[in-house]
Design brief:
Blueprint lengths: L15 H15 L9 H7 L3 E5 L5 E8 L2 E7 L4 H17 L1 H7 L1 E5 L9 H14 L2 H9 L5 H8 L3 H10 L7
Parallel strand pairs: 1-3
Antiparallel strand pairs: 2-3, 2-4
Helix pairs in contact: 3-5, 7-8
Length: about 180
């Protein structure tokens, strides 16, 4: 059983993503969409984007593309549902920030959607967005502060993988190594 042992205060960055996520939560609340854990599929579909599950190779997490007159986000049906949630949030970030590229190039396919800083800036931004959307900094820190320090317990609260929790805890400087 892995446990977060320390809490270091992190001031959340107030950037465009944070503002966008606050807006998303406001819209979700107005539409009676669950926000904890965040119903990412319900929210995306409420925005007129079709969400599908497809057979994909094990190296592909998902993709987003514009098809004739509508947007589609696809997830790999063989991956864990919690990983699919992260993929949906990641692909939605591409919708928000990379629409022109997608419309020009056809689609963005995410191969081995790792949650690391080793990918390019577009992928890094999408991962950061997904992490904040599914595990908001304030909610994450409040959960830890209120005694929820077990990785599995946090993963269950936010309906994400333990790996996503570990990485989020690392990025928030709650643990020293990922």
């Amino acid at each position: 059983m892995a446990i977060i042992r320390q809490r270091r205060f992190i001031e959340p960055a107030l950037d465009d993503q944070t503002s966008d996520i606050q807006q998303i939560y406001g819209i979700a609340t107005d539409k009676h969409i669950t926000t904890c854990p965040f119903d990412v599929k319900g929210y995306i579909e409420s925005q007129g984007i079709k969400v599908i599950s497809e057979d994909m190779g094990s190296e592909i997490s998902g993709y987003i593309e514009f098809r004739i007159n509508h947007w589609v986000i696809a997830v790999n049906r063989y991956q864990n549902p919690r990983r699919q949630r992260f993929t949906l949030a990641h692909e939605y970030a591409h919708f928000l920030y990379d629409r022109e590229t997608i419309q020009r190039d056809g689609k963005i396919v995410d191969v081995l959607l790792f949650r690391s800083d080793e990918s390019n800036e577009i992928e890094k931004r999408a991962n950061q967005f997904a992490g904040e959307l599914l595990m908001p900094t304030t909610d994450f820190l409040n959960a830890v502060e209120n005694g929820m320090k077990d990785f599995q317990q946090l993963a269950d609260k936010f309906n994400v993988s333990v790996a996503a929790i570990r990485y989020r805890a690392f990025k928030l400087k709650l643990i020293n190594a990922y």
